[in-house]
From TrEMBL:
Protein name (database record): Uncharacterized protein
Lineage: Eukaryota, Metazoa, Spiralia, Lophotrochozoa, Mollusca
Source species: Mytilus galloprovincialis
Length: 285
């Protein structure tokens, strides 16, 4: 949790938390038998023996947000939205299915195959209901090199995403940004193109396959908020990397934040129009 010093007088604030888990759903897929093996349906094998298989999966992220807003219309949050974020949680391990507990703070990872889902965490300040609607806008890097049988695709750099976000913020009114999140979305390659599956909330991780990801930007914002948000004319960002203190050692997070605070004080003194929107953490494993 990132905090700033309170300015002026006001009542004490209390935080509330709401977790949203995507709903399970069952999809049916046709498979065919060819040479003794069952495979997904293909026009070549239409005359062979077929059967229907059922798979358990989850609603997509955008569908989950739409269902959440539908519920909030009849049962609004008791307060004002402070922050919205996505978090990954384990749902399956091999064939074992267990209930997702969004309040759990740890899990084990022993199996060579597991499945993860995305959940939403909504932090809010307790108070009268405001009837806000929660929305999501994603920015994906543009592909600059198509994949080939022997080569990987290439994408535009991170500053390009910042430029897209800045242009969108400058030309969008009536919203209140509550979080900007860097997210690693699963990518699958097809013939000379790729699919960035950022909406998928059912990810399979296996030690037998190679997983490829693309870094995207997610902007969570609300509409219908009574809190007036100042328009963003010029948006920019600053990256702070932890300083290496040894061969395999880096400075702590508190030491990095000390440098961030020093930079904020310097910028605040030199610019009267500077306003901090949010601080995000980027994990590269």
């Amino acid at each position: 949790m990132w905090l700033v010093k309170k300015t002026g007088q006001g009542p004490q604030q209390q935080l509330g938390l709401m977790n949203v888990v995507p709903e399970k759903k069952i999809i049916e897929m046709q498979s065919v038998r060819s040479r003794g093996l069952f495979m997904m349906e293909d026009p070549i094998y239409r005359n062979t023996i077929t059967r229907t298989q059922s798979f358990v999966t989850y609603d997509g992220l955008m569908e989950t947000i739409a269902k959440l807003n539908s519920k909030l219309k009849s049962n609004p949050l008791p307060g004002t939205v402070l922050n919205v974020e996505c978090a990954m949680m384990k749902t399956f391990e091999f064939l074992e299915d267990f209930k997702v507990d969004p309040d759990s703070t740890c899990y084990t990872s022993e199996a060579k195959m597991k499945r993860l889902t995305q959940i939403l965490r909504i932090f809010y300040i307790l108070g009268p209901p405001t009837g806000e609607e929660i929305c999501l806008k994603e920015f994906q890097p543009e592909m600059t090199k198509r994949p080939t049988a022997m080569g990987q695709p290439a994408f535009r750099s991170w500053p390009e995403l910042n430029g897209q976000l800045g242009f969108w913020l400058a030309n969008t009114s009536g919203i209140r940004v509550v979080n900007i999140q860097a997210f690693s979305a699963r990518m699958t390659k097809r013939r000379e193109t790729v699919d960035i599956m950022s909406d998928c909330t059912d990810e399979v991780q296996s030690s037998f396959t190679t997983r490829e990801y693309v870094k995207i930007l997610r902007v969570f914002y609300t509409t219908g908020s009574p809190i007036k948000s100042q328009p963003v004319v010029n948006f920019s960002s600053r990256l702070f990397l932890p300083i290496r203190t040894g061969r395999q050692m880096f400075e702590s997070m508190s030491q990095t934040m000390f440098r961030v605070e020093a930079w904020l004080r310097l910028v605040d003194r030199s610019s009267n129009s500077f306003r901090l929107i949010i601080i995000i953490q980027i994990y590269d494993l």
